[in-house]
Amino acid sequence: MANRRKFITGLGALAVGSAAAVGTGAFTSVTAERTVEVNVAGDKSAYLGLEPVSSSPNSDFVEVNSKEVSLDFSSSNSNVDGNGFNPDATTRINDLLRVKNQGTQSVNFWVNIENLGAGSDFVTIEASGFPTFDSRFGSTTGASSQLAFDGGNAGSVRPYTLGTGEDIYLHLVVDAVGESANSFSGSVTFVAENDGTPGN
Could you tell me which residues come within 8 angstroms of residue 89 by beta carbon, excluding any fewer than 6 positions away? Predict the structure, then answer.
């Protein structure tokens, strides 16, 4: 079964305004040109940093092309021997991606999975601290908080508040119980908002 997941990050628009006060008898108008510099960075160095977990053997499933990360579980991935997930089984792949808040404020972070054409729990993305216990996830095993939903099931998502400079690690769970050999494709979107929640 060929599966490919593309990570999509949005670029926010930058608006800059200026105002000039006009005094009596001063002048009619002022036009002042100012420089605004906007850089588009690769996933690793962007405000929401995304990169493979270098110490994890599962980083072989992560590809970086033109500084964008994607997940490749298909036969076209020359770093691994298999070409898909087992049917009628649940597969968990830990420590695929490191996500870091490289911005200037805390954000709510979650993941949207869309248009897979499978069941609502077919693919989930979870997060935890790395590599040991992190009390914010509520378990001595570093147990995960579900950050992603498939099929619009926003109610099952628990966004994580990612502080400035903080990082978390993402894991993929594929529940193919009841599924026969097949191929699914869709989109995965990372969302980081300072006041947003899933479904809003």
Answer: 176, 177
Find all residues with CB under 8 Å of 20, minimum gap 6, and list them. 30, 32
The single-letter DSSP state of residue 179 is: P
Q: Domain-by-domain residue ranges, the chain?
A: 3-14+43-193
CA torsion 147-150-156-162 (nearest 10°) is 20
Type of residue found at 137: F
The overall pTM is greater than 0.70: no
Residue 172 in contact with residue 113, Cβ under 8 Å?
no
Q: Smallest Cα–Cα separation from 80: which of 90, 68, 88, 91?
A: 91
* pLDDT confidence band for 140 (50 / 70 / 90): very low
